[in-house]
Specification:
Distance between the termini: 37 Å
Strand order of the largest sheet: 3-2-1-4-5-6-11
Number of helices: 11
Low-confidence stretches: none
Number of strands: 14
Mean pLDDT: 94
Order of helices and strands: EHEHEHEHHEHEEHEEEHEEHEEHH
Length: 336
């Protein structure tokens, strides 16, 4: 089976590439390298003991996508990660996010082969701010707290309203929560080109001395310690969920199919609890300070995961401590 993985050199994409390649799938990677480095491809080739197919292109440019699918006409499935993903940056530069994330999605669905499995990298941000926790898949789209979240909502509507039932389209949207950690080899992990927007890479860079202090954005939320609560999932568990998702879609006979599944642990962890767990797991201290709330952040979000267990036969295996240790191992390797 030939699987196209867009954004395959990014943080999540690279771990999914490795997971599927290790299961015998033939992977074609597309990435524009806007937030990753070509060295990731070299490390993936090393880990898979192969030479993975790679094309650098901008999926938001229609002609480039059309040309790509003419050259790769034998693709059997698509996993779509390629998107800008910073909540904070999306608040500052909304047009950039709408242009990139929406056009990429539209172009891929237009030109890819009909009725092949399509797994979309969605997010719990589609739910907005939800009072009832844990969040189930039946929870409707809420008011998006950021343009990033809004693009994920629109992409899901594109799958459902624009193509499902009109063009043969078989899709699954994975709404995952907060991935963290790295591969045990220390060869791939989260290493954004610019200042990290996510909590963990910033935290490990502070501990390693690359950055001075970690800012915790707000300690006055209505939570047990005043900081935001999230559902943190090990990147290896998340990668495995994508494998289960595309294999599930291969079994679906209906050429018009759409569904949505949460991918998380089902447990909420506060920012301060994560810092404390890191310190306990590694024996290292985190230099942090409390700052003001950050625009676009949601107070509490953690997943109900029964649907993933029932439909995909998937559930997380790794602990938060394991994820944090793997992230620190990755940070240490990057210092070598």
């Amino acid at each position: 089976m030939n699987i196209l993985i867009t954004g395959g050199l990014g943080y999540i994409g690279s771990h999914v590439v490795l997971c599927l390649a290790n299961k015998g799938y033939n992977i074609i990677i597309v990435d524009n390298l806007s937030n990753c480095d070509i060295s990731v491809l070299e490390n993936l080739n090393q880990l898979t003991n192969s030479k993975l197919a790679f094309e650098k292109l901008d999926l938001s440019v229609r002609d480039q996508v059309e040309s790509f699918f003419k050259n790769y006409s034998n693709i059997d499935g698509v996993i779509h990660f390629a998107a800008l993903k910073s909540v904070g940056e999306s608040v500052r530069k909304p047009k950039k996010y709408y242009d990139n994330n929406l056009y990429s999605m539209l172009n891929i669905i237009e030109f890819m082969p009909k009725a092949i499995p399509f797994v979309f990298s969605s997010s719990c941000t589609v739910y907005g701010s939800v009072s009832n926790q844990p969040i189930t898949e039946s929870t409707p789209h809420g008011i998006a707290e950021s343009p990033y979240g809004k693009t994920k909502q629109i992409c899901e509507k594109i799958m459902d309203k624009e193509f499902h039932g009109i063009k043969d389209f078989k899709g699954l949207s994975l709404r995952y929560f907060n991935p963290l950690g790295a591969h045990s080899s220390g060869l791939i992990g989260e290493n954004p080109k610019n200042t990290p927007e996510n909590l963990l890479p910033y935290l490990t860079q502070v501990v390693s001395g690359k950055r001075e202090v970690l800012t915790v954005y707000g300690d006055d939320y209505n939570t047990r310690d005043g900081t935001c609560i999230r559902d943190y999932i090990h990147i290896i568990d998340l990668a495995e969920a994508h494998l289960k998702a595309i294999e599930y879609l291969f079994k679906i006979q209906d050429k018009n199919f759409i569904d949505y599944i949460n991918i998380g642990t089902g447990s909420g962890v506060s920012v301060l609890e994560l810092i404390q767990t890191f310190e306990k797991s590694t024996g290292l201290k985190v230099n942090y300070k409390i700052g003001k709330r950050r625009p676009g952040d949601i107070e509490v979000a953690y997943a109900e995961t029964k649907k993933a267990e029932q439909i995909l036969r998937w559930k997380p295996k790794y602990s938060l401590s394991s994820a944090l240790n793997s992230a620190w191992n990755w940070e240490n390797k990057s210092l070598d």
